[in-house]
Design goal:
The structure is a single chain. The chain has about 160 residues and is α+β, with helices and mostly antiparallel strands. Among the domains are: about 50 residues, no CATH class; about 40 residues, no CATH class. About 25% of the residues lie in helices and about 20% in strands. The protein contains five helices and eleven strands; from the N terminus they run E-E-H-E-H-E-E-H-E-E-H-E-E-H-E-E. The strands form five sheets. A three-stranded antiparallel β-sheet has the order 2-1-3. The longest helix is centred in the middle third of the chain and has 10 residues. The radius of gyration is 30 Å and the shape is elongated. It starts with 6 loop residues before the first strand and ends in an 8-residue tail after the last strand. The model has no long low-confidence stretch (mean pLDDT about 85).
Length: about 160
């Protein structure tokens, strides 16, 4: 059994989820009745009214975080607000090519040292990973290179352009 989302009242006095009752509204006429007392309703002529009292009761329910390691407890409304911020939610590192998986607080720490983290080259601004940084120095168009003939002169790298 789940909690009602957006509880609305019907003409018979019963309440239900707005989305669930919207499905009944779109059914053939013979199926448009209260799911509790079976009273027939003309859902087309009435609009659903939010049941504010029921909504406040639902929001005030005491809940626990769904993550096994988390000890947080509070009201349902506070839980909805903090759901995405629980530090025990399991996440994958968002850097492409990295497969690190762990609790949010561990992923946050990992992000600081992730070898797949993209950083802009200090000279040209191209995004490269820590692993690619050393190789990038050899091809960065903004770093001067030694003359290939060994004369010691620093030359600007030529960048091939597609016209």
């Amino acid at each position: 059994m789940e909690l009602m989302r957006d509880p609305v009242s019907m003409q018979c006095g019963h309440s239900g989820c707005k989305d669930c009752l919207e499905k009944i509204r779109s059914s053939p006429l013979e199926y448009r009745h209260c799911p509790i007392c079976r009273e027939q309703h003309n859902f087309n002529s009435s609009t659903f009214t939010i049941n504010v009292s029921l909504q406040q009761l639902i929001f005030a329910l005491k809940v626990k975080c769904g993550e096994p390691s988390c000890e947080w407890e509070g009201t349902l409304v506070a839980g909805k607000l903090r759901k995405d911020n629980c530090c025990f939610v399991k996440l994958v590192c968002w850097n492409e090519g990295c497969s690190f998986y762990g609790e949010k607080w561990k992923v946050d720490e990992h992000q600081q040292e992730c070898p797949q983290k993209m950083l802009p080259c200090a000279r040209c601004g191209q995004l490269v990973t820590d692993q690619e940084a050393e190789a990038h120095v050899e091809v960065c168009p903004c770093i001067n290179c030694n003359c290939p003939y060994g004369c010691g002169i620093k030359l600007q790298r030529l960048v091939k352009r597609i016209i």
